[in-house]
Design a protein that fits this description.
The chain folds into 2 domains: 212 residues, Rossmann fold; 81 residues, Tyrosyl-Transfer RNA Synthetase (Orthogonal Bundle), CATH 1.10.240. 57% of the residues lie in helices and 6% in strands. It has 14 helices and 5 strands. The strands form 2 sheets. It has a 3-stranded parallel sheet with strand order 1-2-3. Helix 3 packs across helix 13, helix 4 runs parallel beside helix 14 and helix 11 packs across helix 13. Bound molecules: adenosine monophosphate.
Length: 330
């Protein structure tokens, strides 16, 4: 079984883009691999979250992933800061990391352009901590989106460098986990682009039925096709795409035929889409709300996950310390 490691951001609610674009794959993947999923709360510190909300955010994210289907009996699910061994590995790796290569990282350049008032060292060393997250469990594979590919490439570079310097074959060169056809882009309902938190167009797993209906009914449409088989405008193609992802196949086909025959009534289609979204989301939402209330369960999941992750981390750290020449005084 391959070892797979994936970080999860520690703030924000999950929307249908996160669910169908990433989580559904994670849920499948956990049964086929030895998976470590961690909530990246150390990484979130680059933007200085309020200490009063940090823990609550982590708890909410954990409940959402559990409610959506990550299974702590199958995968190792833990909070990054519960396994501080990762910071030691990050420190050790940083000794062989050059400031120049960190400064050239695209995400770093992006961040300092957008937030010139907050160029902290944590931002600069972000890729080293990320490499430590991955190498801590000597991961074979890492599911990454386009924006994270460079970080994974750097992780491989750090691993190779470590192996070369110390003349060992210790760290693997972690490869991207590719989902093939499973990688889908969930569109937004505001006419253009994808669904996203920062786009402000999310349909969230914890949205109640009323707000789902209201969001879907507000979806941007056009004045309708004027001739059979007319190419779709982007807003309409987005609604169809969402329906294709979420509704039964024959429902999607029914409305596609209506469109192609110029008989479509967007209002009816949106009503149907809203109901199909509710069918998918509402059981997940109910589970999330139940889990959120169950502090004992959440604590147990986090504690047991940390124990499993720690065992793996401590083994790596002990090897790395030995390779680098640290030994206990006897
Ligand atoms: P983010 O919410 O941007 O931090 O993304 C978390 C994960 O969800 C990443 O793996 C993204 O690729 C995925 N994701 C976010 N939005 C979408 C979307 N609209 N369609 C597909 N995947 C998405």
């Amino acid at each position: 079984m391959e070892k797979v490691v994936s970080g999860i951001r520690s703030t924000g609610n999950l929307h249908l883009g996160n669910y169908f674009g990433a989580l559904v794959n994670f849920i499948k993947m956990q049964h086929e691999n030895n998976c470590f999923f961690f909530i990246a709360d150390y990484h979130s510190l680059t933007t200085h979250p309020d200490p009063k909300t940090l823990n609550g955010n982590v708890r909410n994210v954990l409940s959402e992933y559990l409610g959506a289907g990550l299974d702590p009996d199958v995968a190792t699910l833990y909070v990054q800061s519960d396994v501080p061994e990762v910071t030691e590995l990050s420190l050790l790796l940083s000794m062989h990391t050059y400031v120049g290569e960190l400064e050239r990282t695209t995400s770093f350049k992006d961040k300092i352009r957008k937030h010139p008032d907050n160029v902290n060292a944590g931002l600069l060393t972000y890729p080293v901590l990320m490499a430590a997250d991955i190498l801590l469990h000597r991961a074979d594979r890492v599911p990454v989106g386009k924006d994270q590919e460079q970080h994974l490439e750097m992780t491989r570079k750090f691993a190779r460098r470590f192996n070369t310097i110390y003349g060992v074959d210790y760290f693997p060169e972690s490869q991207p986990y590719t989902f093939g056809k499973g990688l889908i882009k969930v569109p937004g309902l505001d006419g253009t682009g994808k669904m996203g938190k920062s786009e402000g167009n999310g349909l969230y797993l914890i949205d109640d039925d009323k707000s789902i209906r209201s969001k879907v009914m507000k979806a941007v449409t056009d004045s309708g096709p004027t001739k059979p088989e007319e190419p779709m405008t982007e807003p309409i193609s987005n609604i169809f795409k969402l329906m294709e992802i979420i509704s039964p196949e024959d429902t999607h086909k029914f409305y596609l035929d209506k469109y192609n025959n110029c008989e479509i009534r967007y209002g009816d289609m949106k009503k149907q889409l809203a109901e199909d979204i509710i069918t998918t989301i509402s059981p997940i939402r109910e589970r999330i709300l139940e889990i959120r209330k169950d502090t004992d369960y959440l604590n147990k999941v986090a504690r047991e996950g940390a124990e499993k992750a720690k065992a793996s981390a401590q083994k790596t750290l002990s090897d790395v310390r030995e390779i680098m020449g640290f030994s206990k005084f006897k």
